[in-house]
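User: Can you predict the 3D structure for this chain?
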Amino acid sequence: RGDVLFDRAARGRYATDASIYQVFPIGVVVPRDEADASAALAVARDQGVPLLPRGAGSSQCGQTVGEALVIDHSRALNGVGQLDLDALTISVQPGVVLDRLNAYLQRHGLWFPVDVSTSAQATIGGMAGNNSCGSRSIEYGHMVHNVLGIDAILADGSEATFGTLESMPRTGRVGELVDGLAAIGAREREEIARSFPRVLRRVGGYNLDVFNPQSVRPYTADGTVNLAHLLVGSEGTLAYFARLKLKLAPLPRNKVLGVVNFPSFYRAMEAARHIVELKPTAVELIDRTMLDLARANPAFQPIIERALIDEPEAILLVEFAGADAAEQRANLDRLVELTADLGFHDAVVSIVEPVAQRALWEVRKAGLNIMMSMKGDGKPISFIEDCAVPLEHLADYTARLTEIFRKHGTQGTWYAHASVGTLHVRPILDMRRDGAEKMRAIAEEAAAMVREYKGAYSGEHGDGLCRGEWVAWQFGPRIGNAFAEIKALFDPDNRMNPGKIVAPPKMDDATLFRFGPGYRRATLVPRLDWSAWDVDRDPLTGRESAPGTGGDDSGGLAKAVEMCNNNGHCRKFDAGTMCPSYRVTRDEQHTTRGRANTLRLALSGQLGDDEDLSGEAVHAALELCVSCKGCKRECPTGVDMARLKIEALAAYRTVHGLSCGERFVAYLPRYAPYIASVPTLANLGKGARILVAAEASALAR
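Assistant: Here is the predicted structure, written as structure tokens:
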């Protein structure tokens, strides 16, 4: 009863996520309800087809792309179930979006505190599959600490509720799983203690350490084993999540924010380990590059200016939250005293107004997308962006990694979770040229440092296609073999999102890249001037070449389309505008991202010989765009779909011409004076009806 999509344009829109990868799926099912999803799973099982569950498609490592049947649960499987106000738990379907869940919980004074920066579009199912974290993990942990149970459908069609070990059945198919997992956990107990990193931020591989916890934050308060925690972070490779039981937290009634300005990036990193001793709920970094990019965005410029003192090289956002307002103000005073003791006098901007705090947090949450607003073929690339190291090594790690970037002729932009030693950094690389070679070299040197500092190579964004090959490196061959055993226990035919975590491809397999060596842009002369996008950018200096010098054979049109980094912010449902047609249809085709992907695929010849800019696939994707310009302002990378629609419509009409109804409306100014001279005739009932019908027909096209 839901949508079943097998045309190339639809599959192309699901071939990418927010990573550097692109793999066309076999097909896409958008189920209408749980029965629909079960039916799709059964058909795939009978046909031996691989399965790939997908939420918002905002993953950064390629977890949600693959040659499989995609099950998109974001449109309809978004129900909120039983809320237990005494136990502070709630049951939800996998497609519910985090912000919408928290809007529902707010009236009860509660929230789900895994506050990822993509909260406006991230689904709970996707967050659980990824083991997502968020800015306040130092206070609340990440998904594995906040999921209590999972109702799952296994590869063979069996249904099971995963929860505490004591609650699990010991008979039948589920009993076999429980016994097998327990045996692996007991056998590898010592190896788990030896090879699992002892840091809060570790999301790589499977959470086999539920049987011998190594995280600095226990998975359960009483030390018991919960097998739902082993499914969290499994990236859809073990089971399909039908429902999830979540642990909630009371909303903090009072928050204050201190913005600490630093004269150097290194000093900010040195200070982070001292600031966390004040017990803040968050300590987030924004570096100079991101500050400059935010200032260049009209929506962010006044917000960021208020937080700055002179021209800092980096700032730390330090939040305190709790029930007592006076206590939080006192914490802010302690922050001012501490920074002065560290040698930074008058360096803190105090923000106590809730509206101003929220505005600045929105800038921080848009950090990744602000970075991606750079023009040119070189983009900040995600592959070592969430390595986690102990705080005492953070300053040295970042300094050494910066030197590695320079050695390879590039630089990185830093932001995010200074509180837990996980800084998001993306070196600027051009994947069309030598980016893959540099990516491999940088990854190997970064990995050696992570091992030296006893950190985690994957600290937040999962494994996917990007870090899958590093799972065995991180945990060693014995635990790697144990992961393969777990995969075989759950999925003996290797149909559940194959190629992730176990037996993954190489991260630099060019056949999987969205912009690989064979990527070609169409040669055409656009109707509008797109030369501002046709530039090259020096990754070290940040200087852009003159407009029209970037080598784009489409005059900059293709590069303007490629500004979309697939973050999926156009799927949001907040008070903004973007994207009105998607808010009605809930169809990926009608998001700004879906339209940009359709345009990109058409302009690069990936939709077939007959589907270029003037083709029906592009026309169908853009038909419901109302040209409201919401995307131009609200898309963090500034994709202007209204302007792109003008270009696409010009190409389409050049080939297909105008209908009579469209000509009737378009030429109205030419004949209106003549009609006005005979108003009696024009206003006759039949004549008026003809005019209205013709105009309505034209507008409906």
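The longest helix spans residues 470-490. The two ends are 27 Å apart (CA to CA).
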